[in-house]
Amino acid sequence: MVKLHVSSECVSKSKGNDLKQGFEQRLEALAAAGGDVLNGGLKGVEKESLRITPDGFLSQSPHPAGLGSALTNRYITTDFSEALLEFVTPAFPTTWEALRCICDIHQFTYAHLGDELLWTASMPCRIPGDREIPLARYGDSNVGRMKTIYRRGLGHRYGRQMQVIAGVHFNYSLPRAFWPAYRAVLNDARDDVTFRSDHYLGMIRNFRRLGWIVLYLFGASPAVCKSFAGAAAKLPSLNADTWFEQFATSLRMSDLGYSNQNQSRINISLNSLDEYVRDLSRAIRTPEPSYEAIGVKVGDRYEQLNTNLLQIENEYYSSVRPKRVARSGEQPTAALRRDGIEYVEIRSLDINMFDPSGINQNTMRFMEAFLIYCLLEDSPKLNGDELEEIRHNHSGTAKRGRDPDFRLQRRGKAVTLQSWAREILENVMTVAEMIDRNGSDGSYRASVGILRAMVENPDSTLSARIVAELEQGGTSYFEFAHGMAKCHRDYFASIAPLRAVQEKNLTDEAADSVGRQAAIEAADEITLDEYLQKYFTAC
After folding, report:
1. Which candidate, 75, 118, 371, 487, has a CA 20 to 30 Å from the CA of 406?
2. How far apart are the C-alpha atoms of 454 and 467, rounded to whole Å?
3. Which domain holds residue 328?
4. CB contact set of 226 (below 8 Å; sequence gap of 6+)
5. 48 lies in a domain?
């Protein structure tokens, strides 16, 4: 373990602006102030999974009754489609608690799926055309109907097939004790909300700069079933049923998925919270001619919420978002204006096909240490030239990240992915060692070590392992993923039953959520038209 020794010179600088010069000085000063301020940050997971029939086709059945209301269940909801489940954990101070919770939710869900399976990959199963992909339904309340209309609009704008691509979101906030300690280290006199939001935005800017490493390490979507229509048809054929890119890491995060052209001209600044809120608010008020051609209310049915660049804030696709828990009826931007950034949401993780829960502790530990590094490292404001480099690095890593000839762009120069990744991991390892020094089990350092090996050997990455399985086994993407889905179902059937307290918690939540939905529906006193007008007037 590398010692974080703190010189007297460094300590003397901790009261001045000189400390703003570098990551190492900031980390050393935090160590001197009490390094345990990095331990115990809150971690939560949101994981999507398609429900499929036993033979591997997209389920057409309603949301299982035993899972409660998709509108109000805190742990189990749906995303775009009625068949696209979303599992949500609370925020926990340890990765073990977060993993155990997501595992429990899977186990509980399987008990209510009948003969259906959960698809275990980010790119979809054998899916039908757009019209046969069912939209998620949330009941007859105004808010429930609004959620379905929003999804209908997404289908018109981007295609329903793209919307059933699944992923894992990792939510993270620094420990409360970190912020006063860091303010003291930097001798910053600004108020708590401004200080915290400013540094979270610095973290987010650096995540945008360096997030290509997440695609390389955790990308697990190098191939797709040929039932996935559209731009995927331009990919090379691996076999009769599979398109793929030989060196791709994450087709999900490429222009086939969430880095699509529809949003390429929506520029949301990350240079200040005011600019972020301003740009996002502007996008949901700016008309888009191609969306005007779709219409809003055609006959008696809403086709979308409005004809603007974004229907609502959540339509903006980004690998990372600043977040705050909103109050009932409060819009995300209003919550950010009220009390600043509370946590960050990382959206670029693919589902790990080799893990029954789709994510593991090594991933969460790395992400935590990496995000702390992103916060402590210098984070100048983004400009147009750097944004172009970020786009190149993101799209290139998604489609060619394991290609030996691929080069990243760094301040106008071409660099190898491995050389830059080694530098990043060295710094992340330093953060991991500081976390472990206070947690004393070595798990964070070990996690970074495992991922460092993937940088040195691209064939050991998740994406390379998937391509190898397909090529060596002579199987299609669908056959391989379908087989993994069956294995994961059997895994959850074989492990010890849910603990009684968790079984009761999930069962009670499912039952209570049905009552909460009914109460919301009974409380509506205005029409849907009036509700939507009131909602957007408040934007």
Report:
1. 371
2. 15
3. 8-537
4. 232, 233, 240, 241, 242, 243
5. yes
Q: Which residue has the tokens 């540094």?
A: 199
3-state secondary structure of 254: coil
Q: Indicate the SS3 state at residue 381.
A: coil
- How distant, in Å, are the alpha carbons of 52, 217, 269, 313 from that of 266? 34, 28, 10, 12
For 241-300, the pLDDT digits (tens) are: 999 999 999 999 998 876 556 677 789 999 999 999 999 999 999 999 999 999 999 999
- 116-163 pLDDT, tens digit each: 999 999 999 999 999 999 999 999 999 999 999 999 999 999 999 999
The pLDDT value recorded for residue 176 is 95
Q: Would you call 527 exposed, middle or buried from its count of C-beta atoms within 10 A (0-12, 13-18, 19+)?
A: exposed
- Calpha distance 308→282 (Å, rounded): 9
Look up tokens 């974004």; give the residue.
Answer: 310
Number of domains in the chain: 1
* CATH code of the domain in which 138 resides: 3.30.590.20
Please, which residues have CB within 8 angstroms of residue 214's CB and are 6 or more apart in sequence? 319, 346, 348, 349, 367, 370
Spatial contact of 51 and 61, defined as CB atoms under 8 Å apart: yes
**Nearest alpha-carbon partner for 211 in 449, 465, 450, 417:** 417
Express each pLDDT in 58-101 by its tens digit: 999 999 999 999 999 999 999 999 999 999 999 999 999 999 99
For residue 515, which amino acid is it?
G
CB distance 259 to 253 below 8 Å: yes
CA dihedral 424, 426, 428, 433 (to 10 degrees): 180
Instruction: Tell me how far CA of residue 378 lies from CA of 2, 19, 119, 206, 409, in angstroms.
Output: 22, 11, 40, 8, 18
**HSE (CB half, 13 Å, CA atoms) of 28?**
20
CA of 84: how far to CAs of 38, 133, 300, 312, in Å?
35, 10, 27, 20
Is 2 within the bounds of a domain? no
pTM of the predicted structure, to 2 decimals: 0.94
What mean pLDDT is predicted for residues 400-414? 98
What is the structure's pLDDT at 439?
A: 78
Q: HEC profile for 128-145?
A: CCHHHCCECCCCCCHHHH
Ramachandran area for residue 16 (φ above 0: left; ψ -120 to 50: alpha; else beta) = beta
Residue 394 lies in a domain: yes
* CA–CA gap between residue 89 and residue 139 (Å, rounded): 23
Q: Is residue 3 part of a domain?
A: no
Separation of alpha carbons 230 and 253, rounded Å:
16
Quickly list DSSP for 163-179: HT---EEEEEE--TTHH
Type and span of the H or E element at 483: helix 477-494
